[in-house]
Predict the structure.
Amino acid sequence: MKPLPLYAEPPPRATPEPARFRNPPAAYRALEAVYRDLDREIARLAPRCDARGICCDFDRADHVLFASALEVDYVKDHVPRERWARPSGNRCPLLTGDGKCGAREFRMLGCRTYFCQPGWSAHAADLYERHYARLKAIAAEHGLPWRYAPALAQFRYGATEPAAAERPG
């Protein structure tokens, strides 16, 4: 048997290794760039947040948080499953006991643009629509299916799948 050269490529595996992330890392990097741009715009407008968690209690706030599958997958791939998959009624499962976001760095577009401050909704609508269009473009660029649905339903849908950290990769 002839030995393999020192720097030979290993033989292909019979079955591919499971992916670590649900989406390509480049899609997540593009999503992070959208979030950074949005966060800078919001910082310039300086809306008030009282950090009471009312926005995350959807019955109290009388709203439904919609998100793209790309955003929800990003949360699922970066936050431990026990935090996003726990039963939470009609409240965000990422809301902590002290009324703060338990996934602030990874929160979705709707979370980033929603503030209880009177008069903010006009700003929120403009910011959301502009950055939402960028999310759709990211999905198209990376060949990802576009799904836009209530975030809680999307978290519940994937509650039985392994978290990114639990998947080999």
Remarks:
- The chain has a mean pLDDT of 82.
- Helices lie at 25-45, 58-61, 69-78, 81-84, 109-113, 121-141, 151-157.
